[in-house]
Design goal:
By secondary structure, the protein is an alpha/beta fold. It has one domain: Rossmann fold. It has helices spanning 17-28, 40-52, 67-81, 104-132, 153-173, 191-199, 203-213, 222-233, and strands at residues 8-12, 32-37, 56-61, 86-89, 135-140, 178-185, 244-247. Helix 6 crosses helix 7. The longest helix is centred in the middle third of the chain and has 29 residues, at 104-132. It is globular and about 50 Å long. The mean pLDDT is 97. Bound molecules: nicotinamide-adenine-dinucleotide (NAD). Nicotinamide-adenine-dinucleotide binds next to helix 1 and helix 6. Keywords: Oxidoreductase.
């Protein structure tokens, strides 16, 4: 288990799914975690779950579409624990739409929530990491940045942007000893996908098809993504920066 004792982490979208699993994993490794999420009830529950295991956490109602909220999160972590060592940019919304059908409001919503949010939080947190002498930033991307899936134009564009921003930020921040990496999950059974399946014309057909698309023959678990987040957040990955690690059961390399 990587030792994150005395480390301080901000995890966006930490109320549920991959963000919640990552926040719990970081807290179990000893980090104090600021749970940043727009969902007050689930966010408070995630904080309570961390504390119930003996971890340290605070919850701050945060909308990642707001620069002021990103600033407030950074300030709250520093006020509570004096620094920020780890930033996990995880919050996102899954809004589908074929490229020549999606409307501009949906496009802008996805890009602001899923991509510009990553820049907002890096912009607010990185200056503190610079002063502290280093840090680790982990962005949650998707295999959708690497392969085309029908009907996800804005979402895929946002994730492709995250991959480019990860590499760019890694180069910009390397002199300050801040590492920036991304995790690209395959299909993970979280509330996000439960909603996608609920809204599908034939949910079981979609579930079967997506399961079969992964060479390992199944969806992943949020905890399996959190393991890689934990690795990238910790000093065990001290010579890795600008990397995009797939946690996808082989989805992106399937050839037939
Ligand atoms: N589940 C998958 O199959 C899958 C696959 C690839 C990538 N991802 C990525 O993993 C990350 C987490 O996905 P998940 O499946 O756990 O999603 P989820 O919907 O289960 O959880 C997302 C969390 O983000 C929060 N959130 C949404 N909009 C927000 C906003 N404006 N401000 C603050 N918080 C906000 C939600 O309240 C929720 O707690 C996302 O970046 C997603 O794109 C997921």
């Amino acid at each position: 288990m990587p030792d994150l004792d005395q480390r301080v982490a901000i995890v966006t979208g930490a109320a549920m799914g991959i963000g919640r699993a990552s926040a719990l994993a970081l807290a179990r490794a000893g980090a104090a975690v600021l749970v940043a999420d727009v969902d007050e009830e689930a966010g408070a529950q995630a904080r309570a779950d961390i504390e119930a295991e003996g971890g340290r956490a605070i919850f701050l109602r945060t909308d990642v579409r707001s620069f002021a909220d990103a600033e407030a999160c950074t300030a709250a972590a520093i006020e509570a624990w004096g620094k920020v060592d780890i930033l996990v940019n995880n919050a996102a919304r899954a809004i589908g739409g074929v490229v020549d059908e999606i409307d501009e409001a949906s496009w802008n919503e996805v890009l602001s929530t899923n991509l510009t949010s990553v820049w907002r939080f890096i912009r607010c947190v990185a200056p503190h990491m610079r002063r502290q002498g280093g840090g680790s930033i982990v962005n949650i991307s998707s295999v959708q940045a690497l392969r085309g899936f029908h009907g996800w134009a804005a979402y895929a564009a946002a994730k492709g942007g995250i991959n480019a921003l990860t590499q760019q930020a890694a180069v910009d921040l390397a002199p300050a000893r801040i590492r920036v990496n991304a995790v690209a999950p395959g299909t993970i059974m979280t509330p996000l996908n439960e909603k996608v399946f609920r809204e599908a014309a034939d949910p079981q057909e979609l579930i079967d098809r997506w399961n079969a698309a992964h060479p390992l023959g199944r969806f992943g678990e949020a905890e399996e993504v959190a393991e890689t987040v934990l690795f990238l957040a910790s000093d065990r990955s001290s010579f890795i920066t600008g990397e995009i690690i797939r946690v996808d059961g082989g989805l992106a390399i399937k050839g037939d």
